[in-house]
Fold:
Amino acid sequence: MSSVRTVGAPGSLRRYLHSLWLLTARDLKVRYATSALGYLWSVLDPLVMSGIYWFVFTQIFNRGVGEDPYIVFLITALLPWVWFNASVNDFTRAFNKDARLVRSTAIPRSIWVNRIVLSKGIEFLCSLPVLIGFAAFAGAQAGWGLLWFPLAVLLQAMLLVGLGLIIAPLCVLWADLERTTRLVLRALFYASPVIYSVHDLPAAFADIAVINPLAGIFTLYRAGFFPDQWDTPAVVGSVCVSVLVLGVGILVFRRLEPAVLKEL
Structure:
């Protein structure tokens, strides 16, 4: 029976969630056990990226994108982007990394995708004090739009689980997809409203905001500080695409799981 289907009974669900937490805790412990900086690694990457883009667009070029304070505008999208980017990169090695355990375990194998989403999601949540600190320092005004934040987290988690259920098995069957995924991520960063907003896109590219689920998700993250950035088509598009990707991911994983186990 497919592993995606076997998490139905209450007892099975409890065991699944317990195993998911144990694997996630192991990942976080391994990640930080040998690191002198520990937690700071969760925020160092988005901080460096934010500093670079802030310097380029405020000190070198005449910035015509985003809103003030620009550093807060950047961080509200860069933090979730780091969650997205790190998760997708890890999906490419999700099964190969623990091949022996994946083959021998009785746990539904979707857990190897979900533990990546959860561990990277916890790191994302732990990095939020950085956003709060910069918002307070820069004088950014928080509003009722912060209520959309949980929806943004939920949508991003759904999107990542769906993508993981597609990417992880495909990378076992076709190793070249790991490098291809990295190239796609580089292009996707600039195709997504991270250093700019949905409203900065030219009219000819407006449809990108509807097709790219990250556009609406980043809009939801930014709504608490920048209500003028709200874009209903982008948000609706993100909801639809995230649900669709999750559904497709479940179907693809069910179809490819036997072939993946043979390959491992």
The chain has eleven helices and no strands.
